[in-house]
Write a structure and sequence with these properties.
heterodimer; A: 181 residues; alpha/beta; six-stranded mixed beta sheet; 18% strand; B: 448 residues; mainly alpha
C-alpha cells in the first residue's frame, strides 16, 4: 500500500469490502433477466410440442399462418412475399420466412409493386402481423392478380378469379394465391 | 443418448487438447474450458473434413471427434501426462469459509441448471438465430453439406455456432443446450482462474458476480454468437494478461487458442488480432523472446485462413468484414458528434445495471481505491491495458460501421443492438480486474 493504515482500521475496511461485494451481488440478483412467464410456462406445461412453443414465441397469428403455408405451398413454389415493412416485419422478411418455407424460393416485393414477376408461381395473401406504422391499412398484395386458385387460411377457396385488393375480406385475410399463367 | 455420446466426445476432445497443449492449467480450468475448446475445434474439423468430401452425419462427426480424442489422449499418454486428474480429498471438518463458499457455488449450480432447462425446453426462435445461425445448422444437418450456403448474408458469418446446432440436430436434441454448456464451462473456468489468486470464498463470490451478470445470463438462453465470442475473447485476454506476468507457456497457448476461436465464431476479429499482436511484439522485444507473437499468430491463422479462403473461393461471397481501402479516408470525416454517439452507446452498456450489472461500478470504485491507496500490481496494470484495448477496438468497429453505412439513424440503431451485444467480453474482464486488484487480494487473497 502507498499509505500505512492503522491496525484498528483494518477490520473496518475488511467489513466494508465484504459489504460492497455483497451489495454488488445483490444488485445483480435484482436485475436478473429470467423471464418469469417462460419459467411458469415450463413448470405448468412440461410437455408442450414444438409448434405450441413456437406459437408462444413467434405469436399465434403469424405462426399459425406459417404452418398453413408449410402444409399447403408446394415445395418448388416461387413465392412473392409481402414487403419488409410494417405491418409485415416478419412475414415480409425473406430470411425469416425462409427458415420455415425452405426449399421454396422467396422473392421480395415493394409497396409500390404493381405486377407479379414472371417467374413467380404463388403470392402470399398477408394481412400483416404487426402494428400499422407509417401505413394506413392492413392487407397485401395491393394490386389485382389473376389467380387460378386462392386459398384462405380460414378454409375458403376461390378458383379462376381475380384477387381484388380493395375487397375488405382480402385486406384482413391470410392465405396465398396461385398465379394464373 | 446420441447427444450424450457426441457432446461427451466433444468435451473429452477439449480436455485432452488442453492436457496436451496447456498442461499446467489447473484441473478446474481444464474442465471448464473443455467444452468451449472442444466444440470450437470439433466444429472446425468437421468443416475442414466436409470440404474434403466427408458428408456430415451423426456417425461421421462422432467418428471424427472420437478419432481425435483417441489421438489426443494417445499422445498425452505417450508424453506421460496423467490422463486421470488428481482430485484432492474432501475436508474432514468444514470451516465457515467453506460452508459459505459452498452455498455460493450451489447458487451458481442452480443458475446453470435453470439455464440448461430453459435451453432444453425452448426451441431456437430469436430473429438472428432463425434467419442465420439455426437456419444454417438445420440446412447442414439435412443436406450434410456446408457448400449449400447460397447467399452473401448466409456466408457472412463463420460457422462455429451453426455447426454446433448441426451437432444438436444430428443428435436429435435441442441445439440450444450448447449455450448452457458454454455458460457452465465459462463459470467453471473463471472460478478455476480466480482460485489461482483468491481463497475459495473470494473465487466463489466473483464467479457468482459473473454468473449473475444480466447480459451473460440472458445470452446463455439466446442462440447468438455473442456469448461464445464473449467467452473466447475475455478468457483469451485474461490468459494473455496472466502470461505476461507469470510467463507460463500453458497460459500463452490457452490464450492464443481461445483467441483463434474468436475468428471461428464471429467476423471482424482482425482489429483485435492486430492490436494484441502489436502489444505482444512490444512485449516480446522487452522480454527478448519471439515465441509470443509466433504462437499467437499461428493459432489465429489456423482458424482464420481456412474459413476466409472458403468464403472467397468456394462460396464466392465478399466477406462481411472485408476491409475496403477506399473507405479509409472517410475515417478522417469522423467528428465529435460521431465520437459522442459511440461513447454514449458504450456508457449506456457499461452503466446499464440490466446489462453489465454491478461489474462496471465495482470496477470504478476499486480502480480509484487502487490508484489512490495502493501501488497497482503488474497483473492489475496489464488487465487495465487489456480493458482499454477492448474498449478501443469496440469503438473502432463501431465507427467502421458508420464509415461503411453512413452515420445516420441506421448506424445508431446498430450501435444500440448488435454493437452493444459486442460488449459481452467486458463483464468477465472487469470482474477479473476487480478480483486481482491489490484491494481484493489483500482482503480475500489465497493463503500461501
Amino acid at each position: 500500500m502507498r499509505y500505512k493504515l492503522p491496525k484498528s482500521l483494518r477490520p473496518v475496511l475488511s467489513a466494508a469490502g465484504i459489504l460492497v461485494l455483497a451489495l454488488a451481488v445483490l444488485v445483480n440478483f435484482t436485475n436478473l433477466t429470467f423471464s418469469r412467464s417462460d419459467l411458469l410456462t415450463m413448470y405448468h406445461n412440461p410437455a408442450l410440442s414444438y409448434d405450441e412453443k413456437m406459437r408462444i414465441k413467434i405469436g399465434p397469428e403469424l405462426y399459425d399462418y406459417i404452418r398453413f403455408l408449410q402444409d399447403n405451398l408446394p415445395l418448388d413454389a416461387v413465392v412473392l412475399i409481402p414487403p419488409q415493412a410494417h405491418p409485415w416485419g416478419s412475414s415480409g422478411h425473406p430470411e425469416f420466412m425462409n427458415y420455415f418455407l425452405h426449399p421454396r424460393t422467396l422473392l421480395k416485393s415493394t409497396l409500390e409493386q404493381k405486377e407479379v414477376p414472371p417467374e413467380v408461381t404463388h403470392v402470399l395473401v398477408a394481412k400483416g402481423e404487426g402494428p400499422l406504422i407509417g401505413i394506413k391499412e392492413y392487407g397485401w398484395p395491393r394490386f389485382p392478380i389473376y389467380s387460378s386458385l386462392i386459398v384462405y387460411q380460414d378454409g375458403g377457396k376461390l378458383v379462376n378469379t381475380v384477387f381484388l385488393p380493395d375487397d375488405p375480406k382480402n385486406k384482413m385475410a391470410w392465405g396465398f394465391l396461385e398465379v394464373a399463367r | 443418448m446420441l447427444a450424450l455420446i457426441l457432446f461427451g466426445l466433444v468435451f473429452l476432445l477439449g480436455y485432452f487438447l488442453l492436457l496436451l497443449l496447456a498442461p499446467r492449467l489447473n484441473f478446474t480450468e481444464k474442465i471448464g474450458l473443455s467444452f468451449p475448446i472442444g466444440i470450437g475445434v470439433s466444429t472446425f474439423l468437421s468443416f475442414v473434413f466436409n470440404i474434403f468430401g466427408i458428408t456430415l452425419t451423426w456417425l461421421s462427426v462422432t467418428l471424427l471427434v472420437g478419432g481425435m480424442v483417441i489421438v489426443a489422449s494417445g499422445i498425452s499418454a505417450v508424453r506421460k501426462k496423467s490422463l486421470v486428474p488428481v482430485v484432492g480429498r474432501l475436508p474432514g471438518k468444514l470451516r465457515l469459509e467453506q460452508i459459505f463458499s459452498g452455498l455460493i457455488l450451489l447458487n451458481i449450480v442452480a443458475l446453470s441448471l435453470i439455464v440448461f432447462a430453459q435451453d432444453l425446453y425452448w426451441p431456437p426462435y430469436h430473429f438472428d438465430t432463425i434467419t442465420l445461425y439455426d437456419f444454417r445448422g438445420k440446412l447442414f444437418a439435412s443436406t450434410g453439406e456446408i457448400s449449400q450456403i447460397d447467399t452473401t448474408y448466409r456466408g457472412s458469418y463463420p460457422l462455429l455456432t451453426s455447426l454446433a446446432h448441426t451437432f444438436g440436430y444430428l443428435s436429435k436434441v435441442n441445439p440450444k443446450i450448447v449455450y448452457a454448456l458454454f455458460y457452465g464451462g465459462f463459470l467453471l473456468s473463471f472460478f478455476g482462474i480466480l482460485r489461482q489468486y483468491l481463497n475459495l470464498f473470494g473465487a466463489a463470490v466473483f464467479s457468482l458476480l459473473l454468473a449473475t451478470t444480466p447480459a451473460v445470463l440472458s445470452h446463455s438462453t439466446i442462440a447468438y454468437t455473442n456469448l461464445p465470442h464473449g467467452i473466447y475473447l475475455s478468457l483469451a485476454l485474461i490468459y494473455l494478461v496472466r502470461y505476461s506476468v507469470e510467463r507460463n507457456i500453458s497460459l500463452l497457448v490457452a490464450g492464443s487458442l481461445l483467441f483463434g476461436l474468436t475468428a471461428w465464431v464471429r467476423p471482424a476479429s482482425e482489429p483485435f488480432f492486430l492490436a494484441i499482436l502489436a502489444l505482444l511484439i512490444i512485449y516480446s522485444i522487452w522480454k527478448k523472446s519471439f515465441r509470443e507473437p509466433v504462437i499467437f499468430t499461428g493459432f489465429y491463422l489456423f482458424f482464420e485462413l481456412p474459413w476466409k479462403s472458403f468464403q472467397r473461393l468456394v462460396l464466392q461471397v465478399t466477406p462481411y468484414d472485408q476491409l475496403n481501402l477506399g473507405l479509409l479516408s472517410r475515417f478522417l470525416e469522423i467528428g465529435p458528434r460521431e465520437l459522442a454517439t459511440a461513447g454514449r452507446t458504450f456508457l449506456n452498456g457499461f452503466a446499464d445495471l440490466g446489462f453489465i450489472g454491478s461489474a462496471g461500478y465495482l470496477f470504478i470504485i476499486l480502480a480509484i481505491i487502487v490508484l489512490v491507496f495502493y501501488r497497482p500490481s503488474r497483473i492489475f496494470a496489464f488487465s487495465l491495458i487489456a480493458l482499454l484495448l477492448t474498449i478501443g477496438i469496440w469503438t473502432f468497429l463501431s465507427l467502421s460501421i458508420g464509415v461503411s453505412w453512413g452515420f445516420g439513424s441506421d448506424w445508431e440503431w446498430i450501435l444500440g443492438q448488435s454493437m452493444k451485444r459486442l460488449l459481452l467480453p467486458l463483464p468477465a474482464m472487469l470482474i477479473f480486474s476487480c478480483a486481482i486488484s491489490p484491494v481484493i487480494v489483500s482482503l480475500l487473497g489465497k493463503r500461501k
